[in-house]
Amino acid sequence: MALNNYMHPRNVYKTPPDFAKLAKIYPEFSSVTIMDVSGKVTIDFKDPHSLRILTKCLLKSDFGVDIEIPEDRLVPTLPLRLNYVLWIEDLLLAIKRNDNVWGIDIGTGACAIYPVLAATKNKWNMIGTETDPESLLKAQENIDRNNLSYFIKLSKNTTTSLVQYLLDSELGQRFDFCMCNPPFYSSIQELCESRNPSRHPPKNGFTGSPQELVTEGGELEFCRKLIDESKVYKDRIIFFTTMVGHKYNLKELLNDLASEGIKHTHTEFCQGRVTRWGLAWTYQDHDIYKLVPPRDKLRKKSLPIAYQLTELPNRPYEIETCSEKIKEILNELQIEKKILSKRGKSISMHIKALKNTWSHQRRKRRLLKRQEEQEAKRMRSDSSGVNESSQNESLEKLQRVVNSAININHNNNNGSILESQVTENNISACQEPILQAFLKIFKKDDAILCEIEYLDGNAGKEGLHQIVQYIKNNWK
């Protein structure tokens, strides 16, 4: 389902662009358009070249700037970028900051898209930082071509810090905000496994270079590093902000800020079929949560499943013990897990299932036992002259039956029982998960609780309830 209804109310792209009109104005855009049988003008959104031309022409049409987007760099999605800028506008308007605004864009990229939008739309003064020399060169060319050097300065970051190196060199300069669109992934494999099949196939083609998409520790560690640096420079920047690509990372970052008593708020950036999240925090006197409250409450929220974990026989009733037991059960179900954080009284993890291994366990066991008994009976009734090859053939048949029984799956959409088409041999490194969830084990008073929140996946919330029931059934 398209999410345009949840886009920022001031975003001009709430109403989709008129491609036919755009094609008449820009011949280069006309060259990549397609007309369907109904006469509607569109483009191939899976073609990076078409995306590049579309973004270039929209920037010309709606913002009056001529931006060159390198073929080997990320094509910025304008509705998303504009959502972020508009949210920062909301933060600044809430504290009546609208004159002589100064901002920092961490990792500005080859297009310097955030500084360009901020400067052309709001006349904000921006400093864009970048570690990649080639992207920095292209960004400067774009700024010079559009005569934006009065508003936008670029700074090459040769350090491992995010804002420290800049603030140490810009002595005395105070900024209203910093913003960043951090690389979402910690590795190419994580990038490959990131999309779940419950969503429609990707509408847009893949663009971006490794340095734009991957960073050590992924976006969670990147954002935590920014939080750490913000503590040192809390008097130099009013609002620290970042985009977040994974909801489970947003939850962890919200916990990080809350645990240290740092005032914060967050929002959803909805556009097309994509949701991202914005996170902002401040050390100033502003009650940021009340001034700009979270926007994700506009849509129906998924309430977590919470229940108490009972004591295990002959094992201490501790967070670590319960965590190890849950890991054992998840391993039985072949559910992947990633520890997000360990605090004194809580452990958080992201869990991901590639196939349904938890549904209809009794049915699987009964079927397996029946097939084994039938096969054993048939083998006993065979004549004593059965040769070894026949026995091997029978064993192979039994193994196929066992594998078939194990792979019985539940189709959430219509409630029917289907035989899974997934086997160990065809699970590729880039297989999409059928369920992702956020799991937290924490101590409250003298009890240890487990809280599991559905994130996405076509197994749905029903699949998550089945996993919870499996954990309960196999706890002791």
From TrEMBL:
Q: Which UniProt keywords are listed? A: Methyltransferase, S-adenosyl-L-methionine, Transferase
**Xref: SUPFAM superfamilies:** S-adenosyl-L-methionine-dependent methyltransferases
* Source taxon at top rank: Eukaryota
InterPro entries reported for this sequence? METTL16/PsiM (IPR017182), METTL16/RlmF (IPR010286), SAM-dependent_MTases_sf (IPR029063)
The answer to whether UniProt assigns keyword Transferase to this entry is yes
EC number(s) from the headed UniProt entry: 2.1.1.-
Q: Biased-composition ranges for Basic and acidic residues?
A: 369-381
Which Pfam families does this chain map to?
Methyltransf_10
Spell out the residue ranges making up region: Disordered. 358-394
Biased segments, Polar residues type: 382-393
Q: Which family does it belong to?
A: Belongs to the methyltransferase superfamily. METTL16/RlmF family.
Q: What is this protein called?
A: U6 small nuclear RNA (adenine-(43)-N(6))-methyltransferase
The organism of origin for this protein: Loxostege sticticalis (Beet webworm moth)
